[in-house]
Amino acid sequence: MSLHKLRLAAVPVTFSTFSSRLFLKPFPNTLTLGSFSRLVQRRKSLLFRAFSASAVVQDIPTTQTYDSSAARPQWKASIDFKWIRDNKEAVEINIKNRNSNANLEAVLELYENMVNLQKEVEGLREERNNVAKKMKGKLEPPERERLVEEGKSLKESLVTLEEDLVKLKDELQHVAQSIPNMTHPDVPVGGEDSSAIRKEVGSPREFSFPIKDHLQLGKDLDLIDFDSAAEVSGSKFFYLKNEAVLLEMALLNWTLSQVMKKGFTPLTTPEIVRSSIVEKCGFQPRGDNTQVYSIDGTDQCLIGTAEIPVGGIHMDSILLESALPLKYIAFSHCFRTEAGAAGAATKGLYRVHQFSKAEMFVICRPEDSETFHQELIQIEEDLFTSLGLHFKTLDMATADLGAPAYRKFDIEAWMPGLGRFGEISSASNCTDYQSRRLGIRYRPSEPLQTGAKKGKANLPAIKFVHTLNATACAVPRMMVCLLENYQQEDGSVVIPEPLRPFMGGIELIKPKLM
């Protein structure tokens, strides 16, 4: 199995006092000598493991805790724990390379406890079944009474163990969901500075006059109002006015028209989703540094990207292979807290709390995901080339990958007013990280083997799909690029030719007459 077959969730590491209290329940009222001996030995063994696991827990940051009185997980990822155990070294290196705080030792400790406890449960079930079989025959009253008592004690013991097993599985889920996706072998190892340039298009425009940034252009051309928005909504909000409104609509409509030519289905999406959907897509809706706005008193959040509601469309479903790939281009408003963002690099439209975006999303067979990743980045590059932008495509390094991404390409465009490159899009292959959590699978259309009979037992095994996402147009940052790159000496801004039909033929945004 290749390394990228591991797909897990990405919510904070959590661990309770469960391991130290799980095995301290009172013994059942009645036990045979054999059952009593087995239960005592089992609890001695698992108590030792529990204390051993608690030593591991001390390495988990104290800011990440789990309330043992909390409800059971709302959902569970289809995590291949055996694969993690068998590929411990590769997983450990991957966690380190991605600067993840996942605690692999705690996961393996809990998994071992779960496997042993599962064997104990299965052993007691077998004993109980054997007792039941014996009672079906003719028995002397003393023997029947003895079997009845043994059956009762086994039942009580089994109930206790099954409750313990459920709690242990929940605990294992919480800890394991912090492990990030595996990483493509060609991804550079290191921080953002280690990212590799895949492609560079165009060159910076040379200006013969003092240039303005998009904030000054927006003010002079009466296109953007940050001050009024700050009074109404707070900082990092804005009003678009006059031609800027047409420019936003033109960008979105042109983008949709171009991407739909590639076989993508257009969507508009809900902009409020359940917290569990956010988590399943690999985002953290709670915590001090979350980028997600949560709605108090509910289990709902505002979306930060259309990737989240689009990913949920086929949740808990089995698709036909013939239906794949599914390719969507989704429009939505996006909402982000931008926690921790500050400084000149985030001023103006570059980093805001609410914006419009068109997002591409692909669901495909595992063997096709790398091909579609190349298709997505090519679409992005073609769009930005058509608009005459100078940009570079980066193969992002391990420490800059989000938990779901197996590989991610970012595109950074030159923003002359800001005097730097700025990210305008990204394209991620999430392999089956999200689908294992969203429950999106497909049934291969493999023909039956020669001589095989038709029937459920001979159907091909159901597999998890791969998911990919890519930004087609994030409006505010595209406006930064267009206003700053297409400004003229007289203060006007030229509209790129591809957008003009979508702006009613407007070719130039001119200063307003006073």
Automatic annotation (TrEMBL):
Residues 213-496 form the Aminoacyl-transfer RNA synthetases class-II family profile domain. Residues 91-163 form the Ubiquitin-like domain. Residues 107-178 form a coiled coil. It comes from the Eukaryota. GO terms for cellular component: cytoplasm. PROSITE patterns: AA_TRNA_LIGASE_II (PS50862), UBIQUITIN_2 (PS50053). GO terms for biological process: translation. ATP binds at residues 336-338, 352-355, 423-426. Pfam families: Seryl_tRNA_N (PF02403), tRNA-synt_2b (PF00587). NCBIfam families: serS (TIGR00414). This is serine--tRNA ligase. The lineage of its organism: Eukaryota, Viridiplantae, Streptophyta, Embryophyta, Tracheophyta.
